[in-house]
Amino acid sequence: MLPNNNYILPSSSDNVKMIESATNYVMRFLTRKFPSLFGLAEECCQPESHNPLNKTKVIALEILDIDESRKDDNITILEAFQKDLNKTDSNNVPIVGDQLTCKNIRGAKRLRLTEDNPIHKLAWAKESPGKILTVI
Predict the structure, then answer these.
(1) Under 8 Å between Cβ of 82 and 119
(2) Structural contact between residues 123 and 109, judged by C-beta atoms closer than 8 angstroms
């Protein structure tokens, strides 16, 4: 187990935002679908925002002909990704992948635990399970 799971779990302020967003979504749905609730829309619903909260940066990564099922090769992939990002600080970079990808990234990070530099330690790579391998 990793020493600190806080980077995977949402913070309390994230939880509050998610609850508010879900409540607002349900209330908008109800006030649109049920005629008896039409008048409540202005009172209980926040206006819809079509703007994303944060601008997403998409980076096309180089194709590497290596075996991503091996931890050593995952280190090579993360180092190549680090170079593509021009990563010089230890700020978190969420990496979304399937369970095996996340397991391999954690294994690569365990192999690098003794490194002094957080960049070489791969401390910046924050794995998160998802449907496809993407970087947020």
Answers:
(1) yes
(2) yes
